Amino acid sequence: MAAANAAMQANMQAQQAAQIANQAAQQAMTDAQAASAAFQLQMQLANANANNFAYTQSGIRALHSVEATIDPERIRAHVQFLSDDLLEGRYPGLRGGELAAKFIATQFALYGLKPAGDNGTYFQNINFVGMKAIPGETSFSFIPLNGKPIPLAYADDYTVANQTLTPAVDIDAPLVFVGYGVTAPEFHWDDYAGIDVKGKVIVCIVGDPPSDDPKFFGGKALTYYGRWTYKFEQTARMGAVGALIIHRTDLASYGWDVVKNSNTSEKTFLRDDKNPHLQAASWIQLDVAKKLFAAAGLDLDKEFTAAGTPGFKAIELPIRLKAHVTSTVRSFQSPNVVGIFPAYQKPVKKGQTPPPFTDQAVLYTAHYDHLGFVPGMAGDNIYNGAADNATGVGMILELARAWSHLRGVLPHSVLFSAVTAEEQGLLGSQYLGQNPPIPAAQIALDINFDMILPIGIPQEIDVNGAQRTTFFPEVQKTAKQFDLTIVPDPRPEAGSYYRSDHFSLSRVGIPAFSVDTGTLYQGHDRAWGEAKMNDFVAHDYHNFTDNYHPDWDFAGNAKLLHFGMELGWQVITGKKPIAWNPGDEFEAARLVSQKP
To answer: Which of 43, 268, 455, 519 is the most core-located residue (most Cβ within 10 A)?
Structure first.
């Protein structure tokens, strides 16, 4: 019996080995076909008129051969490595983040990408300062004009970051309730009208003023005015020393645990940012806000209602914030990793002047950083960030490998950047946008991949933001070719457009959007997809449990790469430049970038 079992096991292993060998042989054949198609295209291009696109049909055939090489298992391998405990949560400026950056740069080099970072390297080094409040040396208390002080518990009641990058600050300042903390002239809305907040601490509500009108604060969709980043920026611009954002799960679209996990770890800031900053950039629990307003003789629910009404007037509360914030201060560098397949330019004879060339590049982005780890914590203390965002990085690495077959025949450049410090407020992509490897006006489109769950083949796609550009008809046509139904943002109230790295590129005028899935997957009903996403957000998002799973299915991620590669080809072979739709909030920035 033992011999029979051993023989059966050996037979099964042999079958598995044969299957793996067969798959490898098939993949090798596919790669060889792609290389042959690309070589033929190179030969045709060398004899073509560089001023026309006579080779386009040949290019499409080569493109499809190259797309056939996209391999879900290669994506899996990248994701598995990037989310391994070895990389310690890929925190910027620490060992794990440095390992991730070097791994990505090595892959770029293997694929033949040209360095597009500093001094002929793949690294666009950024100077950061990490700030982490020291719980035992940091205190917050509300001091009513009449009544006992109300002490707050760090992490459970509030979070705080000192944006001034100094080791310690002391605050003893009046609190001012400014509603939603918004100044929006285009909507005739100014929560700061008639009140001076210089030297004071503001209290505001997360999110936008409520609206059902798409033309007024986006209706149900969150605008940038509703994002916490805007509220801290505007508060500092108004001269306040601190801000307390009131958290409410339905308005923030995430629970307090996300706020706590994201804001009690080290917070990262651009060292050389010249914008004004706060001594205390803080969040407070909803129940804490209720106690605050009750101590001021006010009902928070009524004040929420009033704050959402046109004509709201800010009020100074009869309460001061007394705070001492002590922080560790860590200066460090962390890089964006940037590579380029340059546009083909036909050689000219000696003594001739090359014809003028304006690039029309496509840029692919994904952030490689995550939340790091908690030193000394028992049990699983690593934020591995497998879905968020090892998936996106694994995808652009496989996409770079696929595009590498076409290097040397591209009519316009193809850029790739794995950016750092996304989890710290899109800082890496902010730096990339302000310091692009080629002029921003010559980057036609950014396509971003962020947190795409490997749970199967999607039948729907969310390209929120593409509809704001003249490229949207091409996106619609391409989605149809891949049997992908374009669905609207499933949670417009979450303001997803302003929460990933494409937004940083948009702010400097570059048309940009992220590719994401809907909730309908092949072989499942919609309820299944919704349950999967809800479970991830509730239990794994920004948590220690965002780990790699061997049973993940990367076929859907590969399908989205096919889609993204087709879009990229349309960008670099397009005859008209891509623009924002007239009147879009980013149109002005694009026009500025295009000025000589």
So the answer is: 268
Q: Output the CA–CA distances (angstroms, integers) from residue 444 to 203, 436, 471, 549, in the order listed.
A: 40, 12, 10, 36
Give CA angle at 496 (491, 497), nearest 5°.
130
Question: Distance between CA 207 and CA 184 in Å, rounded?
Answer: 14
| Cα(141)–Cα(324) distance, integer angstroms | 9
CA distances from 128 to 184, 368, 417, 428, 525 (A): 30, 16, 18, 10, 45
pLDDT for 558-579, tens place per residue? 999 999 999 999 999 998 999 9
Q: Which residues pair with 159 in a beta bridge?
A: 283
Task: Name the token pair of 313.
Answer: 């007037």
User: Which tokens go with 58?
Assistant: 């040949």
CA–CA dist 403, 331 (Å, integer): 37
Distance (Å, whole) CA 308 – CA 303: 9
Q: CA-CA distances (angstroms) from residue 147 to 211, 238, 321? A: 38, 30, 14
Instruction: Mention every residue, 6+ apart, whose C-beta is less than 8 A from residue 286.
Output: 246, 247, 248
What pairs with residue 320 in β-bridges? 143, 174
Q: Can you give the length of the chain in residues? A: 596
Beta carbons within 10 angstroms of residue 365's beta carbon: 30
Structure pTM? 0.82
| Residue 184, φ and ψ in degrees, nearest 5 | -130, 85
Residue 196 has φ and ψ, to the nearest 5°, of -100, 120
Local structure of 340: helix, strand or coil: strand
Q: How far apart (Å, rounded) are the C-alpha atoms in residues 588 and 417?
A: 25
